[in-house]
Amino acid sequence: MRSRSARDKPVIKLLKRCLLSNPSQILHFMYCSSCCRRTLLLGAVTLLLIYIVWIFLSGDHYVSTKHEASHYWCGYGPAMSDFVPKQRPMYETEDYPPNVSYAYRNQWVGFPDMEQVDCNQAFNSSVKNNWFPQTVPRIFPHQFKAASANCNEFIRDFGFLRYPKVSEEEENFPLAFIVLFYKDLDQVLFLLRAIYRPHNVYCLSVDTKSSVEFLDAVRSVSKCLPNVFVASKLESIVYAGFSRLMADINCMEDLLQHPIKWKYVVNLPGQQFPLRSNLELVKIFQLYNGANDVEGITGKRMMAMRFMWRHDYVTNNVTGDVRLVSSGIKNRPPPHGIDIVKGSAYGTFSRDFIDFVINHQIAKDFLEWCKTVLSPDEYFWATLHHSKVVNVPGGYTGVPDTKPWLSTYASWGGGGDPCATIRIRSVCIFSPEDLPLLINRKEMFANKFYITHHPAVLHCLDQLLYNVTFSGSTRDLKQYQDLPFALKTSLKL
Ligand SMILES: *[C@@H]1O[C@H](CO)[C@@H](O)[C@H](O)[C@H]1NC(C)=O
Ligand SMILES: *[C@@H]1O[C@H](CO)[C@@H](O)[C@H](O)[C@H]1NC(C)=O
Ligand SMILES: *[C@@H]1O[C@H](CO)[C@@H](O)[C@H](O)[C@H]1NC(C)=O
Ligand SMILES: *[C@@H]1O[C@H](CO)[C@@H](O)[C@H](O)[C@H]1NC(C)=O
Fold it and tell me: How does the entry describe its membrane topology (predicted)?
């Protein structure tokens, strides 16, 4: 079919003629003309090479260096076939770093629907909850899924780059955060945005009992944020059960392998909210000097029945619910002569401590022992941190109960702590009337908030935190100096 005259004519001219006269002839021509066949082949090979180099450069190739990609790429499930290189979001340079008026105009601070709320009123001690809107429009998982289909738009619309560029001090002191949740993705992302910085790292642990759509939306959102990932192993969380502890441990294993060399990790439930800016956290953790910040309770408040007796998992064969019941059989004593100390499930942990927890045999043995304990998350961290038997990194061997604990403020019923509205399982759910109290706390986070319960409290805390961050100022750092648990000798961090 190849015409002799065609070979003699300049290819371009021929192509032009071919296209003009009969576009369908073009492929036929290119294939039949031997010169074009070579060019085509060369082009295809070049494109393939460029594609391979591009994948290598743009994909997160560090993943496959030491660890199995399938393990690290938590977010994408265990099968290699699920592996998708993370698309790096491209930021509109003129949007970043923003300025205050630009951020407010784009409704990146607080809830867009509470724009009219005067937060300065909220910090006045005579604040009343009924001065504020009682609800905020919800954003549902399917909406986040749709919005995150375009990462640039998602990041812009939801204000994930609303803060100014991080300072060098913060950049040299990256933090890791673990967020555990099973519902209210809008509240979780409101929290995530408050603590989000491009140089930190965030592990999301979602209860596997949440719906497929929910988990799908979480994965979709996390794909847009290069330093946010879903834990490689998710747990079905049983109330007061061992799986709650494992959710944190799984994230910590992932975080230790992550290329961002974070110095401290803070674990949070989706219902906490920060009281300090990232810069303040960094400055406070530097004062800790390698020490962990873990609560410690001994004596009568330890609820010893929870670990003296073995607890078994019992499945309700009608509802399918799993719960823990005391078996009436005594637990064997803790391994290695460790003394049990109670504390919160939440804390601030140095990298060295987490390395010990994940890799040291004594920590592994103690974790195994915790399997039959009721609420083991309230014993595991506190016991290791306060152990006199094992010299754990960043630990504390003084009297646990007298040591301050600054990670999280919760207002417990019975503890004499005030609460403006309701308590659920003894813990206050904060509202604007609690704000004058909250802003004077020295803890770094507060627990709990419900997006459905006076959400203006979240709106105003977010605004306060945003303004503090933007100003680059730090508040009352003096009160963190000379903490009894801070390490005296300078540790290499
Ligand atoms: C704030 O930032 C926006 C977007 O970058 C810019 O257009 C605007 O001029 C800035 N305003 C001020 C006062 O710097
Ligand atoms: C607090 O609110 C009261 C009553 O609205 C007002 O009289 C007072 O000036 C306010 N205080 C501050 C510091 O804004
Ligand atoms: C459900 O559990 C009860 C005891 O708790 C048992 O008697 C009953 O046979 C069980 N039903 C089924 C369908 O397994
Ligand atoms: C934060 O800054 C904005 C803009 O300057 C201001 O309107 C708002 O009242 C401030 N809010 C708080 C809580 O500081």
Answer: Single-pass type II membrane protein
